[in-house]
Design brief:
The chain has one domain (about 15-250): 3-Layer(aba) Sandwich (Rossmann fold). The protein contains ten helices and ten strands. Helix 5 (about 110-120) links the parallel strand 4 (about 105-110) and strand 5 (about 125-130). The strands form two sheets. The protein has a seven-stranded mixed sheet with strand order 5-4-3-6-7-10-9, with helices on both faces. Strands 1-2-8 form a three-stranded antiparallel sheet, with no helix packed on it. The radius of gyration is 19 Å and the shape is globular. By secondary structure, the chain is α/β, with parallel strands linked by helices. InterPro entries: SAM-dependent_MTases_sf.
């Protein structure tokens, strides 16, 4: 059924789907200047259209905030030196952080220019092109990571099936993706100035899942264990860990031991400690402000 001029809503599973069709080969960048996910997507489109920082700023800004948040959750389920693949790794900062932490981490991007940027900036391995086009050993990865990527895929079922082939039986998906607040109409969102409206990015966000529909999606593919972790942007995102086998949660002691096994890992552990301290100070500030507002 129609949700808005650009999206349809599935009444059965509460997924929003871009209404005007999409190019199944959008992930194969042939012209780095003209194609949607070529270099201009990172240099000008995100800046001019959405007001986001460019790739140079993001390469610095993302590491101490979202990358640490993602790392903390990955450590909960998979310890270094687990082998990871990040689809849509962008500037490569998260892959670099994972490698510092001791993971055997590789990135993947679509634009040749972005791949070159990440390799030179962070000295990391990055594959170029869709994961479906890569020659990778089946059952060789412990975790496959998609941060703000799932919603861009023209064939999410096909891509995730390919990833399942690459994962070990106990491997996990770590996914950040927009969360459609199921049951809400477009008009209700407009009237309430819902923050999710920002995620209705025609031509880019092709599938927007709800919490219910993402569970149905993965279970349809034989992935029965779905955990929702705290999202960094809970007003409009969800943060999902999905696996075929029930994942084992790592203790704090094991995480500390794994990170302490190398000098770079110790630096990452110190960053996580600082992030914890900052979070505690922020919560105290928020409590103080709330108390002051009540007086």
């Amino acid at each position: 059924m129609e949700f808005s001029s650009d999206y349809l809503r599935c009444a059965n599973c509460e997924t929003l789907v871009f209404a005007h069709g999409f190019d199944k080969d959008v992930g194969r960048v042939k012209d780095d200047d003209a194609d949607l996910y070529g270099r201009q997507y990172w240099l000008s489109h995100q800046v001019q259209t959405w007001g986001y920082p460019d790739i140079f700023a993001r390469a610095r800004k993302d590491i101490p905030e979202r990358c640490l948040h993602w790392l903390r959750t990955l450590l909960k389920y998979k310890l270094p030196p687990s082998r990871t693949l990040e689809l849509g790794s962008g500037h490569g900062g998260f892959v670099a952080l994972l490698r510092f932490a001791g993971y055997d981490a590789t990135g993947l991007e679509l634009s040749p220019w972005v791949v070159d940027f990440a390799r030179k900036t962070f000295q990391i391995p990055v594959l170029q092109g869709p994961v479906e086009d890569q020659s990778l050993e089946a059952g060789s990865f412990d975790a496959i990571i998609l941060m703000d990527v799932l919603e861009h895929l023209p064939n999410p079922t096909g891509t995730i099936r390919r990833c399942l082939n690459l994962l070990k039986p106990d491997g996990i998906f770590l996914i950040q993706t927009p969360r459609y607040p199921e049951g809400k109409s477009y008009q209700e969102m407009l009237e309430g100035d819902d923050p999710f409206l920002e995620q209705l990015k025609a031509r880019e966000h092709l599938f927007l899942f709800s919490m219910s529909s993402i569970q149905l999606f993965f279970r349809y593919l034989g992935v029965g264990f779905i955990h929702f972790e705290p999202a960094m942007f809970p007003a409009y995102d969800m943060f999902v860990v999905a696996s075929r086998q029930e994942p084992v949660v790592c203790s704090t002691r094991k995480i500390t031991k794994a990170l302490s096994s190398s000098p770079p890992g110790r630096l990452v552990l110190a960053l996580l400690d600082l992030d914890n301290q900052f979070g505690s100070l922020r919560r105290l500030y928020e409590i103080g402000e709330a108390d002051r507002a009540e007086r």
